Automatic annotation (TrEMBL):
Catalytic activity entry: 7-aminomethyl-7-carbaguanosine(34) in tRNA + S-adenosyl-L-methionine = epoxyqueuosine(34) in tRNA + adenine + L-methionine + 2 H(+)
Example GO molecular function: S-adenosylmethionine:tRNA ribosyltransferase-isomerase activity
UniProt gene name: queA
PANTHER family xref list: S-ADENOSYLMETHIONINE:TRNA RIBOSYLTRANSFERASE-ISOMERASE
Family named by the database record: Belongs to the QueA family.
Localization annotation: Cytoplasm
Protein name: S-adenosylmethionine:tRNA ribosyltransferase-isomerase
The protein's assembly and partners: Monomer.
Organism: Edaphosphingomonas laterariae
The protein's annotated pathway: tRNA modification; tRNA-queuosine biosynthesis
Length: 341
């Protein structure tokens, strides 16, 4: 499909620079077969049904942005995918000043070898020393805010908490699964009391999630792979809920993409441990989920294509037009939507 079919105009003032406080006070646009309704996140227990199951991504964002030097050249690196115990694939600013075999100094005693360059222009960084890379990043790295926020303000101490979900447990993401940022312990208690369950899976979100689609046709776009894991107990729970007539509601496009990667043509979700580069566009037949909670996405992005595949492109264009006109806040720190096809 033509990528420009997924374009829309978004005023800059609609981009949220801080999350709602408290988190579950954010607005939520509900889109279903009956139309659209303006609600708030903490209404969720009244909207979902008992025996529905929410699926959260328990990845934890690491301080994946580094600033360093190679000689006199200033180098910026955003890690996006782990390739080994001490090796990370990174998108590098000023990459033309880095050659294979160069050593980059990131400060605080953290150095890395530029080992090789990928077809996508990324560079494989091999970190020196014996300390776990996570400890090195805690010393030298900073929280990797999305470019549409980082271009307007610097990351600060608040972001260390604001940009982690309450489910964050497995370090490895360089972007938050932002739909889950809206959830609080009080909201989870209300959902539990209503009989709405939840499970977690892990998908380490990569920096590729922020990359624009440069191709003119979706067939020519290449997705970056991300590592994900669904264990056998979680897969069994997802299948049991659907067999009993409940709905599996993915919280975030990351949870959805991993479930769909693990689901077979028969609709059975199986354990999964590996990379996924699934790219969902209109025409895709969903096999493992029955609904999606997600924030509002970039024009012409793979994620707007995904929600258009779930709900229909014209319906999502109308929903986004309503959200823009009605003052909804967009992107990672913005408001949410509940999409029930």
């Amino acid at each position: 499909m033509r990528v420009d079919l997924f374009d829309f105009d978004l005023p800059a003032e609609r981009i949220a620079l801080r999350p709602a406080s408290p988190r579950d006070s954010a607005r939520m646009l509900v889109v279903d077969q009956d139309g659209m309704a303006d609600r708030i996140i903490r209404d969720l227990p009244d909207i979902l049904r008992p025996d529905d199951l929410l699926v959260f991504n328990d990845t934890r964002v690491i301080p994946a942005q580094l600033e360093g030097r190679r000689g006199e050249a200033r180098i910026g690196a955003t890690l996006h995918k782990r390739e080994g115990p001490r090796a990370w694939r990174a998108f590098v600013r000023n990459a033309k000043r880095v050659r294979d075999g160069d050593r980059i100094e990131f400060g605080a005693g953290v150095t890395a070898l530029a080992a090789s360059r990928g077809d996508d222009g990324s560079i494989l960084l091999e970190f020196d020393g014996d300390e776990p890379v996570e400890l090195l990043l805690e010393r030298a790295g900073r929280m990797p805010l999305p470019p549409y926020i980082a271009g307007k303000r610097a990351a600060d101490e608040r972001d260390a908490d604001d940009y982690q979900t309450m489910f964050a447990a497995e370090p490895g993401a360089v972007a938050a699964p932002t739909a889950a940022l809206h959830f609080t312990p009080d909201l989870m208690a209300a959902l539990d009391a209503r009989g709405i369950g939840h499970v977690t899976l892990t998908l380490h979100v990569g920096a590729g999630t922020f990359l624009p689609v440069k191709a003119e046709d979706t067939d020519d776009h290449r997705m970056h792979a991300e590592y994900g894991r669904i264990d056998a107990a979680t897969a069994d729970r997802l299948n049991a809920v659907r067999r009993a007539g409940g709905r599996v509601i993915a919280v975030g496009t990351t949870s959805l993409r991993l479930i769909e990667s693990a689901a077979g043509e028969d609709g059975i979700i199986r354990p999964f441990d590996g990379d996924t580069a699934i790219f969902i566009t209109p025409g895709y037949r969903f096999r493992g989920i029955d609904g999606l909670m997600t924030n509002f996405h970039l024009p012409k992005s793979t994620l707007f294509m995904l929600v258009s595949a779930l709900m229909g492109r014209e319906r999502m264009q109308a929903a986004y037009a309503h959200a823009i006109a009605d003052g909804y806040r967009f992107y990672s720190y913005g408001d949410g939507s509940l999409l029930l096809p």
